[in-house]
Design goal:
About 40% of the residues lie in helices and about 20% in strands. With about 200 residues, it is of the alpha/beta class. A 7-stranded mixed beta sheet has the order 3-2-1-4-5-7-6, sandwiched between helices. α2 packs parallel to α3. The chain is globular. Bound molecules: S-adenosyl-L-homocysteine and magnesium ion. Magnesium ion binds next to loops.
Amino acid sequence: MIENAHSMIREIKEYAKKENIPIMLDDGINFLTNFILKNKITTILEVGTAIGYSAIRMALASPNLKIVTIERDEERYLVALKNIKKFNLEKRITLIFNDALDVSLDEKFDLIFLDGAKGKNIDFLEHFEKNLAEGGFFITDNINFHGYVQKEETEIKSRNLKGLVRKIKRYIDYLKDSDKYTTEFYEVGDGIAVTSKKEVG
Ligand code: SAH
Ligand code: MG
């Protein structure tokens, strides 16, 4: 990365911290970029752009990579647009301002990265199943949800949080019990799941 890119990345991270925007953790990003290179990923669909941080980091990892990324929050979408322009990545990162569940795409992607509302992952996965390329992967972020998924339910006071944690657990069970998919869970960042189609036959 060129020196200027480093300082621009730092600025985005600082903005995220100040505005409480939950961008990917460093080791999560490293995992993702290594995964992209190792598996020769060339097309990515991302659910949950926020301010464009993960999309930019992924695009910088590999010069041929193309990314479509979806964000439903207008303010964040606008900041993401600006950030992507700063990096001159408009040609490789396409931003869509909408609720991902209302977006219907025809293209297929080598990697579909789920990093939107944590209680909606089953819906996202089912909605974009048809967009997964042959031999492609779903990667889901925040599978541990700041460690709450591992906690006893009685330890969690807030009702909203309890509901969210239940949904994440339901998603984990859904992946584990799936006849169609195999999933590996990684203890990196805030917990990452890598899901691929089971081989038939
Ligand atoms: N991937 C980003 C962080 C995303 S944070 C990064 O690591 O840099 C999650 C984002 O998903 C939030 O900005 C939220 O507005 C968005 N989001 C949540 N549910 C969504 C949905 N259904 N459709 C589109 N965006 C969604
Ligand atoms: Mg995340």
